[in-house]
Amino acid sequence: MAYHILVPKELIEQRHVFPDNPKTADGRTVLSIRDLSYTRFSYGQVEIVNDADLATLMATPENN
Length: 64
Hints:
It is a single chain. By secondary structure, this protein is an alpha+beta fold. The chain is 31% helix and 20% strand. The longest helix is centred in the C-terminal third of the chain and has 9 residues, at 51-59. The protein is globular, with a radius of gyration of 11 Å. 8% of the residues are buried.
């Protein structure tokens, strides 16, 4: 089972990293564990999800 890290949109825009990574409907960027090895800064508060939860998030349109 793979895990994915959901990083807030604001952090990605501020740091100018991972612009081509997939995004959830609410704008969070999806990173793999391997992606973390390419950076040397704190991501702050993130959410970690498994494959099944990520698939559900990616399939759900934003309700706002």
